[in-house]
Amino acid sequence: MKFLQEKNKFIATILAFAVIPMSGLATDIYLPSMPSMATEFKLPESSIQITLTLFLISYGVTQFFAGSVVDSYGRYRVSNISLGLFVLSFLITAFTKDIMVIYAMRILQGVLSGFAVVSKRAFFVDVYEGEKRKHYLSIMTIVWSVGPIIAPFIGGYLQKLFGWQSNFYVLAGYSLILLILELLFSGETLKVKKPFQFYFVLKEYDLMFRTKDFFYGMLMCGVSYAMVIFFNLCGAFIIEHKMGYSEVIAGYVSLILGFAWMAGGFLGKALIKKAFLPKIRYANFIQIFLILMMIFCSYFINNIYTLVAFAFVIHVTAGFIFNNYFAYCIGRFPNSAGVAGGLTGGVAFIITSAISYGIVAIIKPEIQLQVAEGYFVLGILGLIILSITKLRKAHI
């Protein structure tokens, strides 16, 4: 086994940061291409939208057990295998003319993203300690959010210049470069391997599911992120097919809304010392008020500017709620932070994918008003969860 050398620690850290956004890149880079894919495959919008849902579900499920796997078999090996299979799966996605093959590859890519991201999260815990560890983990969160921001912006230009397949060629090339550099400069960071203890993981999960504040926190994370994915599923179709704008404009819209999500996260960090539950409730009330304003204005004004403006402020509130609750859930069980993080991420992404795709399938948004209606359903779901949540003061 090749272990990480001290002289390569800085380069390996940079490579770890480069792997972290892979899940966001794989989900969002082809969003502006979805309408073109539907046209080329001669399929309804829902058949292309489900490719994103399948990715998110497999990504979420993988996080349930990925932590235990990388603790047993090592971070380096799991990460490299994931990168190698990424290259193969992205190339198959680009070459195939069969939508069922694309479905299978998207499921595989979600699984690989789960393993790759969890491996690199563990890397920072292995290599750094104390304040340095906190510093790098904080940077990691910001780097993770960069993927969904820049991916559709890049994807819009790729679609315009080269077609939808180019998105997956770029992802394959990016994965191959990372794999080569990992083999040259990185190495194993796990000092002591632990046997895979499935019973122990189930026992921990049982405890966490029975802890009400943690359970409701996972639900809130899922509902909050569903607002973003809901727009991702229908936004490009509305902007390109209904409003008549280009793939590049759809990419710019996703870029702007990505900054909204990041702004919500930074706002959450800025207000971290404020009382937990009251600030979440205020954010939810503001969110519902903004959604109601969007519904009202939709009867008078309906264009890309109002659509993006309302989506922006709503996504800021969603990012704020998600950031606060995700941090709360991870810190709720400090002695099992890895398991708690995996469970929170897994449940949140499964809820996100199921709810967002379900709302899109039922409403079939084609205009601003229908987008607002989808947001309203999610906002009310958040209000219901917060209404039944009873956080014990000791953990706020």
From TrEMBL:
The keyword Membrane applies. It is a multi-pass membrane protein. Gene3D superfamilies: Multidrug resistance protein D. GO terms for molecular function: sodium:proton antiporter activity. It comes from the Bacteria. PANTHER family: MAJOR FACILITATOR SUPERFAMILY (PTHR23502), POLYAMINE TRANSPORTER 2-RELATED (PTHR23502:SF132). It is found in: Membrane. Its main location: membrane. It holds the Pfam family MFS_1. It comes from Chryseobacterium aquaeductus. GO terms for biological process: xenobiotic detoxification by transmembrane export across the plasma membrane. The chain crosses the membrane at residues 50-70, 77-95, 101-124, 136-155, 167-185, 214-239, 251-272, 284-301, 307-327, 339-363, 375-391. Keywords: Membrane, Transmembrane, Transmembrane helix, Transport. The lineage of its organism: Bacteria, Pseudomonadati, Bacteroidota, Flavobacteriia, Flavobacteriales. Residues 12-396 form the Major facilitator superfamily (MFS) profile domain. This is Inner membrane transport protein YdhC. GO terms for cellular component: plasma membrane. InterPro entries: MFS (IPR011701), MFS_dom (IPR020846), MFS_trans_sf (IPR036259).
